[in-house]
Design brief:
By secondary structure, the chain is of the alpha+beta class. The protein contains 3 helices and 18 strands. The strands form 3 sheets. Strands 1, 2, 3, 4, 5, 6, 7, 8, 9 and 10 form a 10-stranded antiparallel β-sheet that branches. Strands 14-11-17-18 form a 4-stranded mixed β-sheet, with no helix packed on it. The chain starts with a helix and ends with a strand.
């Protein structure tokens, strides 16, 4: 018999000598039933003994380093992560002001499952990465162009993305909030979005430059541009994404030394934002902006991609 068992035995002996008081039941308080007082007194005494013995048993087991089973604690409840992907979010309000069409649509943003985002204000296109943990949202530094259309609205949109720290979704409505919980921007899913009426002439935020003159409209057809990807590296590329000025295109997987099919875009430059995987690593080519660049004319082109250490290089070829 070890010390813990010996202590447990001695405790039982001490319990046997303890007098447990039982409240008296006077005739005036309870209608006496033959034998009830004796049975009740014995029951109370037995219950007290059980409680003491149970406590000693736990003490003895704990003294021997044993684990006493308890009621398992409820698992912590994680914050439900807002679902941002699967739609284009169209701005309806920026810092309390209704979003305006400028020039062809309101500011918008799209989220991808790989933690990248793409959007526009919409004169300028931008792209970058974001971090979403529960409802905590942070936009990382992004690349974008710098063209002025509705200047005030562009600034408000940029400011909303920069100051966003939380996100809240309710069905087809999405809100960006700052840390204290103020709503910076409100969006509607493209599935239920209704386009606002166009801003009347002279109602933009661009400063006036004199009397309004009705311009002579000359319709220039949009360039008919087709771009393919050539993998000039010695490793296979997986999930090659290219962000052109007007849209994001998935070229899929491209084997080493192989070429993709031509895909159509209305607006492209001699370089673009590129994202891909190779040999289990993620690679990005992220231009700063397209200011000063000349858009590609109608024709077929090839973006030749190669890996130089941890960086992607891009070379443009004009095809026949």
């Amino acid at each position: 018999m070890d010390d813990a068992e010996r202590a447990f035995r001695d405790a039982l002996h001490r319990v046997d000598s303890v007098k447990i008081p039982v409240p008296s039941l006077e005739p005036a308080e309870v209608k006496r039933t033959p034998g009830l007082g004796l049975v009740l007194g014995r029951w109370l005494a037995a219950a007290a003994v059980v409680a003491v013995v149970a406590g000693l048993a736990v003490w003895a087991l704990a003294g021997r380093g044993q684990t006493v089973a308890g009621v398992p604690a409820a698992p912590p409840t994680a914050a439900t992560e807002a679902k941002l992907t699967g739609t284009t979010w169209m701005a309806v309000e920026l810092y309390g002001k209704p979003a305006k069409i400028a020039p062809e649509k309101v500011p918008f943003i799209e989220f991808s499952a790989d933690s990248t985002f793409y959007g526009g204000d919409p004169c300028n296109q931008f792209h970058g990465t974001y971090l979403l943990v529960g409802n905590e949202l942070t936009f990382r530094p992004m690349a974008k162009t710098e063209i002025g259309c509705n200047v005030t609205q562009q600034q408000l949109f940029d400011k909303a993305l920069e100051n966003a720290r939380r996100v809240y979704r309710d069905g087809d409505t999405l809100e960006l909030l700052d840390q204290p919980g103020n709503v910076l921007a409100r969006f509607r899913s493209s599935a239920s979005y209704t386009e606002p009426a166009p801003t009347p002439s002279g109602g933009t935020d661009i400063p006036s430059r004199g009397p309004e003159v009705t311009p002579t409209m000359i319709n220039h057809p949009a360039p008919d541009v087709w771009v393919r990807i050539r993998n000039a590296s010695g490793v296979d590329f997986e999930q090659v994404h290219v962000n052109f000025y007007d849209k994001r295109v998935n070229y899929g997987d491209i084997k080493a030394g192989a070429e993709s099919r031509y895909l159509h875009t209305l607006l492209a430059y001699s370089y673009a934002f590129v994202q891909l995987s190779a040999a289990g690593k993620e690679y990005r080519l992220q231009p700063v902006d397209f200011v000063g660049e000349t858009e590609l004319a109608t024709g077929r082109y090839t973006y030749v991609l190669d890996l130089d250490g941890a960086r992607i290089s891009l070379r443009l070829e004009v095809d026949k």
